[in-house]
């Protein structure tokens, strides 16, 4: 039996699509029967990644596109969030907790830190002027396995 599955979703870089992206990924991952905590972790990480793409990648311009690709391999889910926006000049600085390039917008500067803490692993690649790609991985401890 092949225990892999995948989905892809592309949407306009509008802030109202952040909730849609979060729910779509949660619905896709639900086939693994995650705990509520695992589901909330995934939704939070997706929200942060999509919000970063919209606010930082496209500077709030609703004409950009954000792509999410999610794959399930066995009990592990990978989520890739990609934009073709402005990219990140200094990735090391951007990954520092509390750093924000938008202090005037009252951003917390905790997006990458939240993604890192809520997922098992996290990778970010970015090229100025070409966009940013975030890939996150999380192993799901199926509730079915917990109660059998």
Structure report:
The model has no long low-confidence stretch (mean pLDDT 87). A 5-stranded antiparallel sheet has the order 1-2-3-5-4, with helices on one face. It has helices at 17-29, 36-57, 91-94, 111-118, 143-147; strands spanning 4-12, 65-73, 76-83, 121-127, 131-139. With 148 residues, the protein is an alpha+beta fold. It is built from 5 helices and 5 strands; from the N terminus they run E-H-H-E-E-H-H-E-E-H. It starts with a strand and ends with a helix.
What is the count of helical runs? 5
Provide the residue-averaged pLDDT: 87
Helix content: 25-40%
Q: How would you write the strand order of the largest sheet?
A: 1-2-3-5-4
Number of strands: 5
Question: How many whole angstroms does the radius of gyration measure?
Answer: 15 Å
Order of helical and strand elements: EHHEEHHEEH
Give a brief outline of the structure:
Helix content is 35%, strand content 28%. It contains five helices and five strands, in the order βααββααββα.
Key features of this structure:
single chain; 148 residues; alpha+beta; 35% helix; globular
Summarize the helices and strands and which ones pair or pack.
Layout: E1 4-12, H1 17-29, H2 36-57, E2 65-73, E3 76-83, H3 91-94, H4 111-118, E4 121-127, E5 131-139, H5 143-147
Antiparallel strand pairs: 1-2, 2-3, 3-5, 4-5
């Amino acid at each position: 039996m092949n225990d892999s599955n995948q989905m892809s979703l592309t949407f306009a870089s509008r802030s109202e699509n952040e909730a849609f992206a979060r729910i779509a990924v949660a619905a896709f991952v639900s086939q693994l029967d995650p705990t509520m905590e695992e589901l909330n972790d995934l939704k939070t990480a997706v929200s942060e990644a999509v919000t970063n793409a919209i606010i930082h990648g496209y500077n709030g311009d609703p004409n950009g596109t954000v792509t999410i690709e999610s794959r399930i391999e066995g009990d592990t889910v990978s989520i890739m969030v990609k934009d073709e926006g402005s990219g990140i000049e200094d990735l090391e600085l951007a990954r520092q907790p509390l750093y924000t390039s938008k202090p005037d917008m009252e951003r917390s500067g905790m997006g990458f830190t939240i993604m890192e803490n809520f997922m098992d692993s996290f990778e970010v690649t970015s090229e100025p002027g070409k966009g940013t790609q975030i890939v996150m991985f999380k192993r799901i401890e199926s509730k079915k396995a917990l109660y059998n």
